[in-house]
Amino acid sequence: MNKENQHQPDFFLNESAYTVKYDFSRLKTARAKVFALMRDSQWRTIEEIAVETAVPHTSASAYLRDFRKEKCGLHVVDRRIRGSRSTGLWEYKLIENKEL
After folding, report:
1. pLDDT band at 1 (very low <50, low <70, confident <90, very high)
2. Which residue from 73, 31, 68 is spatially nearest to 53, judged by alpha carbons?
3. 77 and 65 Cβ atoms separated by less than 8 Å
4. Each residue of 6-57: pLDDT tens digit?
5. Domain boundaries, the chain
6. Is the CATH code 1.10.10.10 the one for domain 19-95?
7. Are 46 and 94 in contact (CB under 8 A)?
8. 26 to each of 10, 58, 89, 90, how far by Cα in Å?
């Protein structure tokens, strides 16, 4: 099956797409990089997070959402617009939940 005809659910069922043996540690490390950067509670855009951690933009964004979940610590991730609202540029700040 070529990639153009492959649907997303099929892609994730494909063993070559994600294998615990090869991908778990790498992805866990990427999440840890984003968390280590963001725990200083400074405002950053997704672009800044991606550049500073060498984690893809989409992954950095997903990790910020994950940090709000119970399994990832129930942290607060605030967001606000940077500059003019018409630019659509958002920045994010993590407030670490130190009670867990």
Report:
1. very low
2. 31
3. yes
4. 454 554 455 556 566 666 566 678 999 999 999 999 999 999 999 999 999 9
5. 19-95
6. yes
7. no
8. 22, 15, 28, 27
Query: Is the CB of residue 93 less than 8 Å from the CB of residue 42?
Result: yes
pLDDT in tens, 47-90: 999 999 999 999 999 999 999 999 889 999 999 999 999 999 99
- Tokens representing residue 91 in the block: 């920045």
Q: How many residues does the chain have?
A: 100
What element of type H or E holds 79? Answer: strand 76-81
What is the pLDDT, as a whole number, of residue 83? Answer: 93
Tokens representing 11? 């892609």
| Number of neighbouring beta carbons within 10 Å of residue 89 | 13
Angle at which helices 46-53 and 20-38 cross, to 10°: 120
Cα separation, 27 vs 19, in Å, equals: 11
Identify the CA nearest to 79 among candidates 98, 57, 94.
94
